Amino acid sequence: MDEVREIMVDGMSVGLVGLDAAFRAVRDEGGEDDARRAERLIALVAARNYVPLASRERYAAALLREFKRFIGEPVADEGRESTALEIRVLGPGCPPCDMLMQRTMAVLSELGIRADIRHVTDIAAIADYGVVSTPALIIDGVVKSVGSVPSPDRIAGWLDEATREREEGEV
Q1: pTM
Q2: Who contacts 151 (Cβ-Cβ below 8 Å, separation ≥6)?
Q3: Same-domain status, 94 and 50
Q4: Range of the domain at 59
Q5: Residues pairing with 146 in the sheet
Q6: How far is Cα 37 from Cα 29, in angstroms, rounded to an integer?
Q7: Is 108 exposed, middle or buried (0-12, 13-18, 19+ CB in 10 A)?
Q8: How confident is the model at residue 83, as a pLDDT?
Q9: Tens digit of pLDDT for each residue in 11-52?
Q10: Could you write out the DSSP letters of every residue in 6-18?
């Protein structure tokens, strides 16, 4: 099983599967054109991971930055605060939990909302949220759904509400 490695994409932590393998493949292909490297990295990573269409350029820039670190080239740190929503799908990996994760990612992509989304499967970590039934959906620390898979429209409403609350808090 491939290891999940986290990188920072536009100020948020994103877990990606098979990143080291992608880095080795691009390194072995050679070439020093950054645009070509970024294009190849995004293609390899998107083949195995969720990469929102609206964020492809940000992912490509982050992947190129991490690739340069991987091969020992100097890079500047990103250093920006996260403005992405924090979303957690809680559940042990059962079909409804996986469906909630996929449905939430699809809604995020459709709406073009940036989010740090993670599927929490560890029972102790799930218990820390005070949730006694799964699947559960947590948006910015607020429990939105427990024990069912909400409709895409309902998820979209919660995401829109959380986005508006963040924007109002930044004014």
Answers
A1: 0.56
A2: none
A3: no
A4: 4-71
A5: 136
A6: 9
A7: buried
A8: 63
A9: 677 889 999 999 999 999 988 889 999 999 999 999 999 898
A10: EEEETTEEEEEES
